[in-house]
Design brief:
It comes from Saccharothrix tamanrassetensis. The protein has one domain. The chain is built from seven helices and 32 strands. Strand 30 and strand 31 form a beta hairpin. It is globular. It binds MU-OXO-diiron and calcium ion (CA) (3 copies).
């Protein structure tokens, strides 16, 4: 802090210019290196990666594919952490040179199952080089895949909607799928969101019961064969044979990396939707609040408030108590109101009459324990078919809520609304003050402040911090900051905060035709809205999972080389191994060459 209570934002780096290079570009004076990449060993006995000789057994011991979220849990050691990565999805045409979409083999399918899930890897910072080095640690390292056992907890555990022929109890699920973003909890566990799980299930189109059909359709399940055709090798992926199996995905899962033998759980109290992630803050009264987004066009933002209070400390007793906090509480969905008649940001550069896209809102309760607050829904139906309950409750349709994360410095909540090109299309909802752009290609970032700064509050105020895009374009807004002094930014996806409380934003799908990257922006003081680009990732990649520590930054480089026309037979990126190699998703660390603070 400077005198007078004023804080420096510490963001002293020179912004990286937009580019289309096939490498990670960091500012002058900074360096970067791969920490771990797809196929690198995680468990003891993992063979060296061989693209042309993949096996399910090897993949189950190696770092999985398409890492998205990345979280660090500190160990009781000054330079060691457990790094947890989500492996969101596979793109078989990039995994296999001989991929035949009509005829996948059992082996290819089992490799894909093993390439999904999460990895826990012990990492150590080498203070000489600045690098973060992965260790094949016998005790802590772990792979969780599409076939690992999970326990269902919370009020919908054992629900009739979760029972299958393989699990008549409705409490034991094999695997986690499409784990996108997540969060590290104050008690040192990892939350991870099961997002686009619908794509793994076949034959929802054969369902004739209208109630069941509508439930499936609301979650994007329809049609016949799935893209990957897993249903050929495990009937649980065939909705015609196992109608409840899709209901066992779309949850927030929690894993405890510090207890390698623990069974990971699926938390039904946090509702079922296309969970981007979940981030927890301890409210002033000690209850914990999890903020969550449902990443679909015109879907919703949610929060969960626990019944019980957080117990500080790392004792076994405190941790076991805290690991149950997300099982009992109240699930809410957000309704936003604007306060200005002009809701659209358009080509005129005109802002609302009061100068801001802002307003108020409320958290509408959906269910608490066994009690439903939504007419026509039992509590169990609210938890399993949350989207429909939230429709009924009158939630506000947002432009694809990705990360929704509280800033520990100011308790305000920042939501990345990544884009929604359907906004304003015929038959779809038009612009509203919280989602003010028709054909929203570049997305926006919303800042939410709970009443009196109380994260358990039922009402809030909100304002848009950023309406992303080319700052030269009149339909963008950078918190009121001088738009000639900011980096262009498009499609915000994941957010993180540094120790100063600055917001860091990673992007996915940059619609400005340059590579995706990581950006930092102050949210307080005279530089509020001054977006600066910190790094760019190789072509075709998205940037995700940012972790911002004082001395280094981690990003996930997901799907490098995922460019139209590319495949393993025709790779259009050779990052990170170079030459004629196949692209490999990876975690990257960036640091300051003089070993100074990232944010100094
Ligand atoms: Fe997997 Fe919402 O991004
Ligand atoms: Ca306004
Ligand atoms: Ca995402
Ligand atoms: Ca995204």
């Amino acid at each position: 802090d400077l005198g007078g209570g004023r804080r420096r934002d510490g963001l002293n780096f020179t912004p990286v210019a937009p580019n289309t290079e096939d490498r990670v570009v960091t500012p002058e004076g900074y360096e970067s290196a791969v920490v771990i990449r797809w196929g690198d060993p995680v468990l003891p006995g993992a063979p060296a990666f061989d693209f042309d000789r993949q096996t399910p057994a090897a993949q189950a011991k190696q770092f999985g594919y398409n890492n998205d979220f990345c979280g660090l849990v500190p160990l009781n050691h000054w330079n060691r952490w457990l790094m947890v990565s989500n492996h969101e999805y596979t793109t078989e045409e990039f995994l296999f040179k001989n991929w035949d979409a009509a005829n996948p083999t059992r082996e290819q399918t089992e490799i894909a199952w093993a390439a999904h899930g999460l990895s826990v890897v012990l990492v150590e910072r080498d203070h000489r080089s600045g690098k973060l080095v992965p260790k094949v640690d016998r005790h802590y390292n772990r792979r969780i895949t599409a076939t690992s056992e999970f326990r269902v907890t919370g009020p919908a555990a054992g629900s009739q909607y979760l029972k299958t022929s393989a699990d008549p109890t409705g409490t034991k699920v094999l695997g986690t799928l499409n784990n996108c973003a997540g969060g590290v909890t104050p008690w040192g566990t990892i939350l991870s969101g099961e997002e686009n799980f619908n794509q793994y299930f076949a034959n929802a189109g054969s369902v004739t019961d209208p109630v069941q059909k509508a439930r499936l359709a609301r979650y994007g399940l329809s049609g016949a064969a799935s893209t990957r055709k897993w249903e050929r090798f495990d009937k649980r992926f065939d909705v015609a044979q196992e109608p409840n199996e899709p209901n066992r995905f779309g949850w927030v899962v929690e894993i405890d990396p510090l207890d390698p033998n623990s069974t990971p759980v699926k938390h039904t109290a946090l509702g079922r939707f296309k969970h981007e992630g979940a981030n927890v803050i301890i409210a002033r009264d000690g209850r914990v609040v999890a903020y969550m987004g449902d990443d679909e066009r015109f879907d919703y933002m949610y929060k969960f408030v626990s019944d019980e209070r957080y117990k500080p400390g790392n004792s076994r007793y405190a941790r076991e108590h805290n690991k149950k906090l997300l099982d009992r509480g109240t699930l809410y969905v957000a309704r936003f109101s604007g306060d200005s008649p002009v809701a659209e940001i358009d080509g005129t550069g005109e802002l609302p009459a009061d100068g801001e896209f802002d307003g108020t809102g409320q958290w509408i309760p959906l269910a608490s324990g066994n009690r439903s607050f939504v007419d026509g829904f039992t509590a169990e139906e609210v938890y399993v078919f949350t989207r429909q309950a939230a429709d009924k409750a009158g939630a506000t349709k947002m432009d694809r809520p990705e990360d929704v994360e509280p800033n520990p410095r100011n308790r305000r909540v920042y939501a990345a609304l990544t884009n929604n090109t359907d906004r304003g299309k015929a038959g779809k909802e038009g612009p509203t003050e919280p989602n003010p752009r028709v054909n929203n290609r570049h997305g926006h970032v919303l800042e939410l402040e709970e009443r009196r700064g109380d994260n358990t509050a039922l009402t809030f105020s909100w304002k848009l911090l950023l309406v992303c895009g080319d700052p030269a374009s009149p339909d963008t807004y950078f918190g009121g900051y001088d738009k000639t002094q900011v980096s262009p930014i498009s499609c915000p996806d994941n957010v993180a905060f540094d120790s100063h409380g600055n917001l860091w934003i990673s992007t996915d799908g940059n619609a400005l035709k340059s590579n995706d990257g990581l950006f930092a922006v102050p949210v307080e003081g005279r530089y509020r809205g001054r977006v600066k680009q910190f790094l760019t990732v190789p072509k075709g990649a998205e940037t995700c999972g940012p972790v911002v520590q004082d001395e280094f930054v981690l990003v996930s480089v997901q799907h490098p080389g995922e460019i139209d026309g590319a495949s393993a037979a025709n790779p259009l990126s050779h990052w990170p191994d170079g030459g004629t190699s196949q692209p490999r998703p990876a975690v990257v660390v960036a640091w300051k060459k003089d070993k100074g603070r990232i944010c100094g």
